[in-house]
Design goal:
Shape: globular
Structural class: mainly alpha
Largest sheet: none
Radius of gyration: 24 Å
CATH architecture of the largest domain: Orthogonal Bundle
Strand content: under 5%
Low-confidence stretches: none
Number of domains: 2
CATH class of the largest domain: Mainly Alpha
Length: 276
């Protein structure tokens, strides 16, 4: 049997413990302080547990003060419209790239790859001026246009699945008189179900957690989303931290539930696409 180095084994498990602590520490602080009264928050250490986990007043006040109902509604609109348009355009693009040979095919893929190495903040001035010139600043359609852009992860996953679909299916459909559009909508896209589920989950989490885009393009209170709703608890020199913690818990619950039930689709879609 191979002898194990005790120093290496200790370092390995110690690094795992540190990693687990780094991941779980922020959620623990948020949850613990969400149930504290103002006096508890001001007098007790931040890492201490609340006197009672049945103190729910913070959640009610946070839901009302942050206008969470409107925030959830606007976020749902952003996610729904962005998902439909993004996956429709992305899958159609990958169908064309993955199924047909044409001049400039490699150049198009190269441009997408090149765009990924450009820091996103360097494009913000151009993006902002473009959205403003279209009259979409402070309108939900402004961020939607930015979200529907096909990202490289979507291209990678869709292409791997499309290249694994036998081309004989396309030929059989063509012999029956089906157009390319019908082949894509009735044969190719339904077979992309696992890839679509994976992309949808990743896209939902990305849009749901994004604070920069809504904060920049949706400044009015009527267009608040879940991420920007937290800004209502901060003043110029202070913040209502127990209310912020309660609001963060309310925001965390939907994504935590979704991730727990659908995480297998994320890993399955990515790994299957890599193998294929």
């Amino acid at each position: 049997m191979e002898r194990r180095n005790p120093v290496w084994e200790t370092f390995k498990y110690l690094s795992l413990v540190i990693a687990v602590f780094a991941v779980l520490y922020p959620p623990y602080i948020i949850v613990a302080n969400a149930f504290k009264t103002r006096d508890e928050f001001n007098t007790k250490p931040m890492m201490s547990l609340p006197d009672s986990f049945l103190y729910l007043r913070n959640f009610g006040e946070a839901f009302k003060s942050a206008d969470m109902l409107r925030a959830y509604e606007n976020t749902l609109i952003l996610i729904g419209v962005s998902l439909v348009l993004s996956m429709a355009l992305g899958s159609a693009f990958c169908y064309a790239i993955g199924r047909f040979e044409f001049k400039g095919r490699g150049l198009v893929m190269g441009l997408f790859l090149f765009a990924t190495i450009i820091p996103s903040f360097t494009n913000q001035v151009v993006n902002f001026k473009t959205i403003q010139s279209l009259g979409l600043h402070d309108k939900l359609m402004g961020p939607i246009l930015l979200y529907i852009g096909t990202d490289i992860m979507m291209i990678f996953i869709y292409l791997q699945f499309i290249r694994n679909i036998p081309y004989e299916l396309d030929e059989s459909a063509m012999l029956e008189g089906a157009s390319l559009f019908k082949i894509f909508t009735t044969i190719i896209f339904p077979l992309l179900g696992p890839a679509t589920a994976t992309i949808a989950i990743l896209k939902i989490i990305a849009i749901y957690n994004d604070i920069f885009t809504p904060y920049l393009y949706l400044p009015s209170p009527e267009n608040v989303v879940v991420s920007t709703s937290l800004m209502r608890f901060f003043g110029n020199n202070s913040g209502d931290w127990q209310m912020v913690s309660a609001a963060i818990v309310l925001i965390m619950i939907p994504t935590a539930i979704m991730y727990l039930f659908l995480q297998r689709h994320i890993f399955a879609g990515v790994t299957n696409g890599a193998v294929k």
